[in-house]
Structures are given as C-alpha cells and as structure tokens.
Amino acid sequence: MNKWTLLAAGLVLAVFLAMFSVPTHGFSTPDGKAIMEDRCGGCHGLDRITSKTKDRAGWQTTVNRMIGKGATLNDEEKAALIDYLVSK
Predict the structure, then answer these.
(1) pTM of the entire predicted model
(2) From CA 86, how far away is CA 1, in angstroms rounded?
(3) Which domain holds residue 64?
(4) Max alpha carbon distance in the chain (Å)?
(5) Cβ atoms of residues 87 and 54 within 8 Å
(6) What are the tens digits of pLDDT across the range 1-16?
(7) Is residue 49 part of a domain?
C-alpha cells in the first residue's frame, strides 16, 4: 500500500469512529405516544383520545386548540404527537 491509500483508509476510519462516539446529550426523536400519555392524559382519558379518528389536518386543529387552552408542547413534540395520532 502506498502512503495515500493508508491516509485515505485512516481518514475513513476516523470519520466512522467519530460518527459513533459523538454523545447524543439526551436528544432523540420525541415519542408521540409518551407525549400523549404525559401531556394529554392529565386532562383527558386516553380512551377519549385514542377512540378518535382524524386526518392530519384534524389532529393539527385539535392539538393547536389544546395548546391554546394551556397544553405545553414545543414544535418537535407537537409534530411527534400529531404523527402518532394520525398513525394510531
């Protein structure tokens, strides 16, 4: 192997190792079901929520209305919750 091949292989290995050694600092995709249980379940029975069938626009309207009534969700949590509600 010449020095350029070894250098390229070393760079690829370094990038690969760096990808898997970066800490996540607790960041992950929010769990829509857990958000529903935690944020919605305090005021509503979960069966009230899960028994409803709405399209994305319907759930967006409902979630926005609940935020207007005091539910606290950041944009990422809101998106995860709506994704979950649409898919259930």
Answers:
(1) 0.66
(2) 55
(3) 32-87
(4) 68
(5) no
(6) 787 776 656 555 554 4
(7) yes
Distances from the Cα of 75 to the Cα of 10, 23, 30, angstroms: 40, 23, 11
CATH number of the domain that residue 82 is part of: 1.10.760
Average of per-residue pLDDT values in the chain: 81
- Whole-number Å distance between alpha carbons of 14 and 11: 5
Query: What pLDDT, on the 0 to 100 scale, is given for residue 6?
Result: 63
R_g (Cα) of the chain, nearest Å: 22
Classify burial at 80, counting beta carbons within 10 Å of its beta carbon; exposed 0-12, middle 13-18, buried 19 or more. buried
In a domain, 17, yes or no: no
Q: Is 21 left (phi over 0), alpha (psi -120 to 50) or beta?
A: alpha
Helix (H) or strand (E) holding 72, with range, is none
**Count of CB atoms situated within 10 Å of the CB of 39:** 19
- Domain count across the chain: 1
